[in-house]
Write a structure and sequence with these properties.
The protein has 357 residues and is of the alpha+beta class. It contains seven helices and 19 strands. The chain folds into two domains: 162 residues, 2-Layer Sandwich (D-amino Acid Aminotransferase, Chain A, domain 1); 165 residues, D-amino Acid Aminotransferase, Chain A, domain 2 (Alpha-Beta Barrel), CATH 3.20.10.10. The structure holds pyridoxal-5'-phosphate.
Length: 357
Amino acid sequence: MITADLTNIRIEKNNFSSIKSVDFNQLDFGKYHTDHMYIVDYGDEKWFDARVIPFQNISLSPATASFHYGQTVFEGFKAHRSKTSNEIILFRPEKHWERMNKSMERICMPTLPKDIFMDGVIEMAKMERDWVPTQDGCSLYFRPFVFATDAFIRVKPSDNYYFIVFCSPVGAYFSGELKVKIETDYVRSSEGGIGFAKSGGNYAASLLPAKKAAKNGYQQIMWTDAKEHKYIEETGASNVMFLIDNVLITPSLSSSILDGVTRDSIITIAKDMGYKVEERKVTVDEVINAIKNKTLQEAFGTGTAAVISPISVINYLNVDYKIDAPKENGFSRKVYKTLNDIKYGIIPDPYNWTIRV
Ligand SMILES: Cc1ncc(COP(=O)(O)O)c(C=O)c1O
Protein backbone atom coordinates (compact mmCIF):
# COMPACT_ATOMS: atom_id res chain seq x y z
CA MET A 1 0.00 0.00 0.00
CA ILE A 2 1.41 3.33 -0.99
CA THR A 3 0.86 6.24 1.33
CA ALA A 4 1.10 9.73 -0.04
CA ASP A 5 2.02 11.47 3.20
CA LEU A 6 5.45 10.00 3.87
CA THR A 7 7.34 12.61 1.94
CA ASN A 8 6.72 16.13 3.03
CA ILE A 9 6.13 17.68 -0.37
CA ARG A 10 6.06 21.44 -0.61
CA ILE A 11 3.63 22.60 -3.26
CA GLU A 12 3.79 25.80 -5.27
CA LYS A 13 0.89 25.92 -7.72
CA ASN A 14 1.22 27.35 -11.18
CA ASN A 15 -1.23 30.25 -11.58
CA PHE A 16 -1.19 29.73 -15.31
CA SER A 17 -2.15 26.58 -17.22
CA SER A 18 -1.07 25.98 -20.81
CA ILE A 19 -3.55 23.14 -21.25
CA LYS A 20 -5.78 25.15 -23.61
CA SER A 21 -2.91 25.54 -26.08
CA VAL A 22 -2.61 21.77 -26.53
CA ASP A 23 -4.38 19.97 -29.37
CA PHE A 24 -5.21 16.66 -27.69
CA ASN A 25 -6.22 15.21 -31.06
CA GLN A 26 -2.68 15.72 -32.41
CA LEU A 27 -0.40 14.58 -29.60
CA ASP A 28 3.05 14.17 -31.11
CA PHE A 29 5.16 12.16 -28.68
CA GLY A 30 7.14 14.43 -26.37
CA LYS A 31 5.99 17.79 -27.73
CA TYR A 32 4.09 19.10 -24.72
CA HIS A 33 4.66 19.32 -20.98
CA THR A 34 2.16 19.90 -18.19
CA ASP A 35 2.08 22.84 -15.78
CA HIS A 36 4.16 21.45 -12.90
CA MET A 37 7.29 19.50 -12.13
CA TYR A 38 8.44 17.56 -9.09
CA ILE A 39 11.98 18.25 -7.96
CA VAL A 40 14.14 16.91 -5.13
CA ASP A 41 17.72 17.94 -4.28
CA TYR A 42 20.59 15.71 -3.21
CA GLY A 43 23.58 17.01 -1.25
CA ASP A 44 25.42 16.26 1.99
CA GLU A 45 24.59 12.60 1.37
CA LYS A 46 20.82 12.98 1.56
CA TRP A 47 17.78 13.75 -0.58
CA PHE A 48 15.92 16.84 0.61
CA ASP A 49 13.39 19.56 -0.21
CA ALA A 50 10.85 17.57 -2.23
CA ARG A 51 8.62 20.09 -3.98
CA VAL A 52 6.14 20.45 -6.80
CA ILE A 53 6.65 23.76 -8.56
CA PRO A 54 5.53 25.38 -11.83
CA PHE A 55 7.30 23.81 -14.85
CA GLN A 56 10.32 26.01 -15.46
CA ASN A 57 13.87 26.23 -16.76
CA ILE A 58 16.73 25.40 -14.43
CA SER A 59 19.81 27.55 -14.08
CA LEU A 60 23.08 25.57 -14.06
CA SER A 61 26.78 26.32 -14.23
CA PRO A 62 28.51 25.57 -17.56
CA ALA A 63 30.79 23.35 -15.44
CA THR A 64 27.89 21.10 -14.39
CA ALA A 65 29.31 17.56 -14.33
CA SER A 66 26.46 15.83 -16.20
CA PHE A 67 26.97 18.07 -19.26
CA HIS A 68 30.50 16.78 -19.58
CA TYR A 69 30.58 13.21 -18.34
CA GLY A 70 27.02 12.03 -18.83
CA GLN A 71 26.18 11.09 -15.24
CA THR A 72 22.45 10.93 -15.98
CA VAL A 73 19.64 8.40 -15.75
CA PHE A 74 15.99 8.58 -16.73
CA GLU A 75 12.78 6.59 -16.71
CA GLY A 76 9.49 6.66 -18.57
CA PHE A 77 6.09 5.29 -17.63
CA LYS A 78 2.49 6.15 -18.36
CA ALA A 79 -0.78 7.05 -16.67
CA HIS A 80 -4.09 6.33 -18.39
CA ARG A 81 -7.56 7.66 -17.79
CA SER A 82 -9.78 4.83 -16.58
CA LYS A 83 -12.57 3.87 -18.98
CA THR A 84 -14.73 2.65 -16.10
CA SER A 85 -14.22 5.14 -13.27
CA ASN A 86 -13.02 8.63 -12.55
CA GLU A 87 -9.53 7.42 -11.73
CA ILE A 88 -6.11 7.95 -13.23
CA ILE A 89 -4.26 4.66 -13.49
CA LEU A 90 -0.47 4.57 -13.22
CA PHE A 91 1.17 1.57 -14.88
CA ARG A 92 3.94 -0.12 -12.85
CA PRO A 93 5.63 3.00 -11.43
CA GLU A 94 7.28 0.92 -8.69
CA LYS A 95 8.97 -1.30 -11.26
CA HIS A 96 10.33 1.83 -12.94
CA TRP A 97 11.59 3.10 -9.60
CA GLU A 98 13.39 -0.22 -9.10
CA ARG A 99 15.00 0.00 -12.52
CA MET A 100 15.96 3.63 -11.98
CA ASN A 101 17.86 2.65 -8.86
CA LYS A 102 19.67 -0.12 -10.75
CA SER A 103 20.67 2.43 -13.38
CA MET A 104 21.74 4.87 -10.66
CA GLU A 105 23.96 2.29 -8.98
CA ARG A 106 25.73 1.57 -12.28
CA ILE A 107 26.26 5.27 -12.98
CA CYS A 108 27.64 5.68 -9.47
CA MET A 109 24.78 7.79 -8.12
CA PRO A 110 23.14 7.56 -4.69
CA THR A 111 19.90 5.60 -4.96
CA LEU A 112 16.51 7.21 -4.36
CA PRO A 113 14.16 6.02 -1.56
CA LYS A 114 10.93 4.55 -2.86
CA ASP A 115 8.69 7.00 -0.97
CA ILE A 116 10.37 10.01 -2.49
CA PHE A 117 9.75 8.59 -5.95
CA MET A 118 6.25 7.23 -5.41
CA ASP A 119 4.87 10.09 -3.34
CA GLY A 120 6.07 12.63 -5.89
CA VAL A 121 4.65 10.69 -8.80
CA ILE A 122 1.28 10.30 -7.07
CA GLU A 123 1.22 13.99 -6.20
CA MET A 124 1.96 14.87 -9.83
CA ALA A 125 -0.80 12.50 -11.02
CA LYS A 126 -3.24 14.27 -8.70
CA MET A 127 -2.20 17.77 -9.73
CA GLU A 128 -2.03 17.06 -13.47
CA ARG A 129 -5.07 14.78 -13.75
CA ASP A 130 -6.80 17.11 -16.23
CA TRP A 131 -3.85 16.52 -18.56
CA VAL A 132 -4.46 12.77 -18.86
CA PRO A 133 -5.92 12.44 -22.36
CA THR A 134 -9.31 10.87 -23.00
CA GLN A 135 -8.44 9.93 -26.60
CA ASP A 136 -7.91 6.24 -27.40
CA GLY A 137 -4.28 5.16 -27.34
CA CYS A 138 -3.22 8.39 -25.60
CA SER A 139 -1.80 8.76 -22.10
CA LEU A 140 0.18 10.98 -19.77
CA TYR A 141 3.86 10.06 -19.99
CA PHE A 142 5.90 10.56 -16.81
CA ARG A 143 9.59 11.34 -17.25
CA PRO A 144 11.54 10.90 -13.97
CA PHE A 145 15.26 11.63 -14.29
CA VAL A 146 18.35 12.28 -12.21
CA PHE A 147 21.47 14.17 -13.14
CA ALA A 148 24.73 15.27 -11.54
CA THR A 149 24.83 18.94 -10.59
CA ASP A 150 28.36 19.44 -9.21
CA ALA A 151 29.92 22.46 -10.90
CA PHE A 152 33.29 20.78 -11.05
CA ILE A 153 35.04 19.58 -14.18
CA ARG A 154 36.98 16.64 -12.98
CA VAL A 155 35.95 13.06 -13.77
CA LYS A 156 34.46 11.80 -10.54
CA PRO A 157 31.00 10.94 -9.20
CA SER A 158 29.09 14.10 -8.37
CA ASP A 159 28.23 14.96 -4.76
CA ASN A 160 25.03 16.78 -5.77
CA TYR A 161 22.06 15.77 -7.91
CA TYR A 162 18.56 16.75 -8.97
CA PHE A 163 15.73 14.24 -9.22
CA ILE A 164 12.98 15.67 -11.41
CA VAL A 165 9.68 14.35 -12.75
CA PHE A 166 7.73 16.10 -15.45
CA CYS A 167 4.81 14.88 -17.52
CA SER A 168 3.84 15.00 -21.17
CA PRO A 169 0.49 14.10 -22.76
CA VAL A 170 1.35 11.70 -25.60
CA GLY A 171 -0.06 9.77 -28.50
CA ALA A 172 1.54 6.88 -30.40
CA TYR A 173 5.34 6.76 -30.59
CA PHE A 174 5.37 4.97 -33.93
CA SER A 175 2.76 5.62 -36.55
CA GLY A 176 2.51 3.59 -39.73
CA GLU A 177 4.91 0.86 -40.70
CA LEU A 178 7.86 -0.08 -38.50
CA LYS A 179 10.84 -0.99 -40.64
CA VAL A 180 14.02 -1.92 -38.78
CA LYS A 181 17.63 -2.37 -39.83
CA ILE A 182 19.82 -5.00 -38.20
CA GLU A 183 23.03 -3.18 -37.28
CA THR A 184 26.26 -4.93 -38.15
CA ASP A 185 28.82 -2.11 -37.85
CA TYR A 186 27.96 0.24 -35.00
CA VAL A 187 27.54 -0.77 -31.37
CA ARG A 188 25.16 0.76 -28.83
CA SER A 189 26.56 -1.04 -25.80
CA SER A 190 28.59 -4.09 -24.92
CA GLU A 191 28.73 -6.71 -22.18
CA GLY A 192 30.05 -5.07 -19.04
CA GLY A 193 29.05 -1.61 -20.26
CA ILE A 194 26.01 0.45 -19.32
CA GLY A 195 23.45 -0.86 -21.82
CA PHE A 196 21.16 -2.15 -19.06
CA ALA A 197 21.10 1.28 -17.45
CA LYS A 198 18.70 3.87 -18.78
CA SER A 199 21.43 6.45 -19.11
CA GLY A 200 21.89 9.19 -21.69
CA GLY A 201 25.14 7.81 -23.12
CA ASN A 202 23.44 4.74 -24.56
CA TYR A 203 21.09 6.95 -26.50
CA ALA A 204 23.88 9.28 -27.64
CA ALA A 205 25.70 6.26 -29.09
CA SER A 206 22.60 5.29 -31.04
CA LEU A 207 21.89 8.64 -32.73
CA LEU A 208 24.27 8.53 -35.70
CA PRO A 209 23.50 4.95 -36.78
CA ALA A 210 19.78 5.66 -36.29
CA LYS A 211 20.04 8.78 -38.44
CA LYS A 212 21.79 6.85 -41.20
CA ALA A 213 19.18 4.08 -41.05
CA ALA A 214 16.35 6.64 -41.12
CA LYS A 215 17.79 8.14 -44.34
CA ASN A 216 17.19 4.76 -45.95
CA GLY A 217 13.65 4.47 -44.57
CA TYR A 218 14.21 2.41 -41.40
CA GLN A 219 12.61 3.86 -38.28
CA GLN A 220 14.66 1.83 -35.82
CA ILE A 221 17.94 -0.01 -35.54
CA MET A 222 17.86 -3.58 -34.31
CA TRP A 223 21.06 -3.82 -32.29
CA THR A 224 23.23 -6.91 -32.26
CA ASP A 225 25.92 -8.02 -29.80
CA ALA A 226 29.10 -5.97 -29.81
CA LYS A 227 31.52 -8.89 -30.36
CA GLU A 228 30.16 -10.79 -33.34
CA HIS A 229 27.00 -8.99 -34.49
CA LYS A 230 25.49 -12.44 -34.40
CA TYR A 231 22.88 -12.16 -31.65
CA ILE A 232 19.90 -9.81 -31.55
CA GLU A 233 19.73 -7.47 -28.56
CA GLU A 234 16.94 -4.86 -28.79
CA THR A 235 15.94 -1.82 -30.83
CA GLY A 236 16.76 1.80 -30.07
CA ALA A 237 13.58 2.38 -28.06
CA SER A 238 12.15 -1.05 -27.32
CA ASN A 239 12.87 -4.68 -26.59
CA VAL A 240 12.11 -7.17 -29.36
CA MET A 241 10.09 -10.36 -29.49
CA PHE A 242 9.42 -12.98 -32.13
CA LEU A 243 6.64 -15.52 -32.38
CA ILE A 244 8.10 -18.53 -34.16
CA ASP A 245 6.10 -21.75 -34.38
CA ASN A 246 3.80 -20.41 -31.65
CA VAL A 247 6.72 -19.96 -29.24
CA LEU A 248 7.42 -16.46 -27.92
CA ILE A 249 11.16 -15.88 -28.22
CA THR A 250 13.03 -12.87 -26.88
CA PRO A 251 16.70 -12.12 -26.17
CA SER A 252 17.60 -12.90 -22.56
CA LEU A 253 18.58 -9.99 -20.32
CA SER A 254 22.24 -9.11 -20.04
CA SER A 255 24.37 -6.14 -19.06
CA SER A 256 23.97 -4.73 -22.57
CA ILE A 257 20.17 -4.50 -22.93
CA LEU A 258 17.43 -2.76 -21.02
CA ASP A 259 15.25 -4.82 -18.69
CA GLY A 260 12.02 -3.54 -20.23
CA VAL A 261 8.94 -3.25 -18.04
CA THR A 262 6.71 -3.91 -21.06
CA ARG A 263 8.86 -6.95 -21.92
CA ASP A 264 8.28 -8.31 -18.42
CA SER A 265 4.54 -7.57 -18.60
CA ILE A 266 4.15 -9.32 -21.97
CA ILE A 267 6.11 -12.38 -20.85
CA THR A 268 3.88 -12.65 -17.77
CA ILE A 269 0.65 -12.33 -19.78
CA ALA A 270 1.89 -14.71 -22.51
CA LYS A 271 2.72 -17.41 -19.96
CA ASP A 272 -0.71 -16.98 -18.37
CA MET A 273 -2.28 -17.35 -21.81
CA GLY A 274 -0.51 -20.70 -22.10
CA TYR A 275 2.21 -19.68 -24.55
CA LYS A 276 5.66 -21.18 -24.31
CA VAL A 277 8.19 -18.41 -23.71
CA GLU A 278 11.91 -18.66 -24.38
CA GLU A 279 14.26 -16.00 -23.02
CA ARG A 280 17.58 -16.88 -24.57
CA LYS A 281 20.21 -15.80 -27.04
CA VAL A 282 18.50 -15.22 -30.39
CA THR A 283 20.66 -15.33 -33.50
CA VAL A 284 20.07 -13.07 -36.47
CA ASP A 285 20.30 -16.17 -38.68
CA GLU A 286 17.46 -18.00 -36.98
CA VAL A 287 15.16 -15.00 -37.35
CA ILE A 288 16.04 -14.50 -41.01
CA ASN A 289 15.64 -18.24 -41.65
CA ALA A 290 12.28 -18.23 -39.86
CA ILE A 291 11.12 -15.42 -42.16
CA LYS A 292 12.39 -17.34 -45.20
CA ASN A 293 10.77 -20.63 -44.25
CA LYS A 294 7.58 -18.88 -43.06
CA THR A 295 7.72 -20.12 -39.46
CA LEU A 296 8.03 -16.57 -38.17
CA GLN A 297 4.48 -15.47 -37.39
CA GLU A 298 5.16 -12.14 -35.72
CA ALA A 299 7.99 -9.76 -34.83
CA PHE A 300 7.40 -6.71 -32.67
CA GLY A 301 9.02 -4.10 -30.47
CA THR A 302 7.85 -3.71 -26.86
CA GLY A 303 8.18 -0.59 -24.75
CA THR A 304 6.35 2.00 -22.68
CA ALA A 305 6.31 4.39 -25.62
CA ALA A 306 6.15 1.75 -28.36
CA VAL A 307 3.63 -0.45 -26.43
CA ILE A 308 3.57 -3.33 -28.94
CA SER A 309 4.77 -2.21 -32.36
CA PRO A 310 4.60 -4.83 -35.11
CA ILE A 311 7.68 -4.87 -37.36
CA SER A 312 6.84 -5.00 -41.06
CA VAL A 313 10.35 -5.17 -42.55
CA ILE A 314 13.69 -6.36 -41.22
CA ASN A 315 16.69 -5.26 -43.24
CA TYR A 316 19.78 -7.43 -42.95
CA LEU A 317 22.93 -6.94 -45.01
CA ASN A 318 21.03 -4.72 -47.46
CA VAL A 319 18.19 -7.17 -48.05
CA ASP A 320 14.63 -6.33 -46.95
CA TYR A 321 12.74 -9.23 -45.38
CA LYS A 322 9.01 -8.57 -45.24
CA ILE A 323 6.82 -9.76 -42.39
CA ASP A 324 3.04 -10.09 -42.71
CA ALA A 325 0.86 -7.85 -40.56
CA PRO A 326 -0.25 -9.61 -37.36
CA LYS A 327 -3.56 -11.45 -37.66
CA GLU A 328 -6.69 -10.06 -35.97
CA ASN A 329 -6.68 -12.93 -33.46
CA GLY A 330 -2.88 -13.26 -33.47
CA PHE A 331 -0.66 -13.26 -30.41
CA SER A 332 0.35 -9.61 -30.27
CA ARG A 333 -3.21 -8.34 -30.80
CA LYS A 334 -4.43 -10.53 -27.94
CA VAL A 335 -1.66 -9.50 -25.55
CA TYR A 336 -2.02 -5.86 -26.55
CA LYS A 337 -5.71 -6.00 -25.69
CA THR A 338 -5.12 -7.59 -22.28
CA LEU A 339 -2.36 -5.10 -21.47
CA ASN A 340 -4.46 -2.16 -22.59
CA ASP A 341 -7.54 -3.38 -20.75
CA ILE A 342 -5.49 -3.51 -17.53
CA LYS A 343 -3.99 -0.06 -18.17
CA TYR A 344 -7.41 1.51 -18.82
CA GLY A 345 -9.12 -0.30 -15.94
CA ILE A 346 -11.43 -2.23 -18.28
CA ILE A 347 -10.54 -5.57 -16.66
CA PRO A 348 -9.26 -6.21 -13.12
CA ASP A 349 -5.50 -6.10 -12.67
CA PRO A 350 -4.56 -9.58 -11.47
CA TYR A 351 -0.88 -8.67 -11.18
CA ASN A 352 -1.10 -5.62 -8.91
CA TRP A 353 0.69 -3.57 -11.54
CA THR A 354 -1.48 -0.49 -11.39
CA ILE A 355 -1.92 2.34 -8.91
CA ARG A 356 -5.16 4.29 -9.01
CA VAL A 357 -5.24 7.97 -8.15
C1 LIG B 1 16.69 0.95 -25.31
C2 LIG B 1 15.35 0.58 -24.80
N1 LIG B 1 15.04 -0.72 -24.70
C3 LIG B 1 13.84 -1.12 -24.25
C4 LIG B 1 12.87 -0.21 -23.86
C5 LIG B 1 11.57 -0.69 -23.31
O1 LIG B 1 11.51 -0.53 -21.93
P1 LIG B 1 10.13 -0.31 -21.17
O2 LIG B 1 9.23 -1.40 -21.61
O3 LIG B 1 10.47 -0.38 -19.74
O4 LIG B 1 9.63 1.03 -21.58
C6 LIG B 1 13.15 1.15 -23.97
C7 LIG B 1 12.14 2.13 -23.58
O5 LIG B 1 12.25 2.89 -22.72
C8 LIG B 1 14.43 1.57 -24.43
O6 LIG B 1 14.75 2.86 -24.50
